[in-house]
TrEMBL record, chain A:
Keywords: Isomerase, Metal-binding. PANTHER family: FUMARYLACETOACETATE HYDROLASE DOMAIN-CONTAINING PROTEIN 2A, FUMARYLACETOACETATE HYDROLASE DOMAIN-CONTAINING PROTEIN 2A-RELATED. One of its GO terms (biological process) is small molecule metabolic process. This is 4-hydroxyphenylacetate isomerase. It comes from the Bacteria. Signal peptide: none annotated. Residues 48-251 form the Fumarylacetoacetase-like C-terminal domain. InterPro entries: FAH, Fumarylacetoacetase-like_C, Fumarylacetoacetase_C_sf. The keyword Isomerase applies. Belongs to the FAH family.
Automatic annotation (TrEMBL), chain B:
This is 2-hydroxyhepta-2,4-diene-1,7-dioate isomerase. SUPFAM superfamilies: FAH (SSF56529). Residues 48-245 form the Fumarylacetoacetase-like C-terminal domain. It comes from Geobacillus thermopakistaniensis (strain MAS1). GO terms for biological process: 4-hydroxyphenylacetate catabolic process.
Amino acid sequence: MANVRLRLAGMVRAIEAKADPWSGTVSFGGRTHRIDEWEWAAPVDGAMYGVALNDEKEWEALSTEMNAPPYEKPPEGPVLYMKPANTINAHRRPVLLPRWVKHLQAAPALGLVIGRTAARVRREQALDFVFGYTIVNDLSIPHEQRHRPAVKEQARDGFAPVGPWIVPKEEASPLSSLTARVYVNGRLVQRADPSRFRLPVEQWLAEVTEFMTLYPGDVLFFSWPADAPLVTAGDVVRIEIERIGVLENEIALEQGGDE
Amino acid sequence: MMRRARVAWNGIVTEAEPLDDGRLRLPDGTIVGELEVMWLPPVEPGVIVALGLNYAEHAGELSFVAPKEPLLFFKGKNTLIGHRGRTVRPEGVNMMHYECELAVVIGRPASRVKAERAYDYIFGYTIANDYAVRDYLENYYRPNFRVKNRDRTTPLGPWIVSHEEVGDPMALRLRTYVNGAVVQEGYTGDMIFSIPYLLEYITEFMTLAPGDVILTGTPKGAVNVQPGDEVVAEIERIGRLINYIV
């Protein structure tokens, strides 16, 4: 049971609630409800920035490529990408698979929700600027190139389910214990934890806010793409992060268009 | 309203209408001088989509082959700053340059818009000066955020001019002045990917919302700027956006 901030469909603002993902219940307003009896909304509406090339396993796999054209050498500064407002999606809402694509990569990610305006923060104080943690399903159309921003692959409508809620950091376990598990159609396909991060999140917060301010409600997220599953229409992707919660989304075939 | 600014004045943030004599009319009729207000970006976009290498000559100058499809990247609201604002040149860098760009402001939710209908979805236009600090260029997701997403490096304004008032946005002269001297000149008709094409391309995969902004790229003529410089980005039928390097 954790105290969380959540937003249901129709709520303009997040509310405080008690949640127990493992029994599948949330309590607020003096009543207990089943999680699946609600339509959910994403608990955040700020900017969502991903830190790329932070997964040690991915970094190792790319070590040769990173020293060849067009990259020439491994990156020195943070490599960031953005999931803009149109990509934000909610727990149990479908993610649409474009009709010309066979698979999407569904990378689990730990989201740090910013609590106070963070500019030029020092590594030692970085977590003071974090309100809490959430789960991000960082969906993309599989792509090899990292030379140019992968906007068409990463920024389609609905490609960033986030939630189901935010767990304030005081309520959560230590960062190092936040193990992610990904299930596709109920089968465990990936397990990863923050020991795989190339640099600690505090270090990234310092490096990122050295040149760009993060605002309350913004999310800086850290994914584990190296062994993330490829999913297709009909698949249900369930990302669990220990003591944070469970984020579940079905992949559905996109309808309409006139191709 | 044909021209719309956003300013801070007397402890409030308010819409304002620029008048021909340079003064501003507030919604309650109060008239204020242009130096009595703090100019804010005229729109608070949810999403900012920017274009790289969208003018043939600029693409050539940076020794790149013109892209086959639009080179898009995103920017955060941390980058925006209003007319007459100050932008920091980081200490010790060798190359920081302005980029005068026509900024498109979306007026209606736009999803899968056809190029022929693109202008129906555009509220109006403003000017952006999308500074880049080239020292920080790296070859990953280039142009990377450290080059293009720095705090207060994207002056936007001074105001929005409606689409009807501008007429054809593909027929506008752009000019940048540093300390009064012309350093960059271009013509929106030289864009590789036109505004209608871009709107169709972008909204095929992402829905744009009212207030979202597309920065359409910059023509040739990018040169280094130094602390103390006054940089003016000017676009015909829109206005002059002033910024100071510190």
